[in-house]
Amino acid sequence: MNLVHELVIIAVAWIAWCVLHSFLISHAVRRWSKRVLGPSDRYFRICFIIISIVTIVPVIIYSRQVTGEVVFAWNGLLEYARWVLLILSAWLFLAGARVYDMRIFAGIAQLSSTANPAALTESGTIIRRGILKHSRHPWYLASVLGVWAFEPVVDLPGLVVRVILTVYLIVGTYLEERKLVAELGDEYRRYQDEVSMFIPLKWLRRK
């Protein structure tokens, strides 16, 4: 099998995983789960996490077995830039973890309740503290930075994966925004007006 065919397989596999991931957390699937599963719907989040992990592992393994021409390397001073991005990515994840309810994110809190809280809070209201005062989606931003800075050398297959994941994360953010507007209405629209989606440009302008 030549490299072109392998790149096509990689692209199809990653796109299929992204579509599956988004489909499983769509409103349609959530409504179906609540209607069909009833009280057992409280296990949905944990099952979603398990399915996401199990399905992504073979995609990652296959992608890493395919090698190609190096298209970019974080050499010289760029190596320092790479570490800055990695540290920033880690900080954004930690900052998000400090304000999100991680029990809800992991699906543990739902085991004692059939509620479907929004914005990773028990009350289903918007968090307006910590990093979420400056960025509405710090984890999406952290993921994009991490995807590009994770490895010092990017070959052609790696570039394909990074482009697909970047597009998916950006599109996923907008889909998440639509879900939050549908769930929280005007409260979330006001939050959109006050806080930037990714980079805290509004906060910087106030400075």
Question: What is this structure's SSE topology?
Answer:
Blueprint: H1 3-24, H2 27-37, H3 44-65, E1 70-73, H4 77-99, H5 102-105, H6 138-149, E2 153-155, H7 156-184, H8 186-194, H9 201-206
Antiparallel strand pairs: 1-2
Helix pairs in contact: 1-3, 1-7, 4-6, 6-7
Q: How would you characterize this protein structure?
A:
The chain has one domain (3-206). Helices cover 67% and strands 3% of the residues. The protein is built from 9 helices and 2 strands, in the order αααβαααβααα. A two-stranded antiparallel ribbon has the order 1-2. The radius of gyration is 19 Å and the shape is globular.
Total tally of structural domains = 1
The end-to-end span amounts to 55 Å
Count all strands and give the number: 2
How many DSSP helices?
A: 9
Mean pLDDT equals 88
Report the uncertain regions: none
Question: What is the 3D form?
Answer: globular
Proportion of helical residues = 55-70%
**Oligomeric organization of the protein chains:** single chain
* Rg result: 19 Å
Main features:
single chain; mainly alpha; 3% strand; 207 residues
Kindly summarize this structure in a few lines.
By secondary structure, the protein is mainly alpha-helical. Helix content is 67%, strand content 3%.
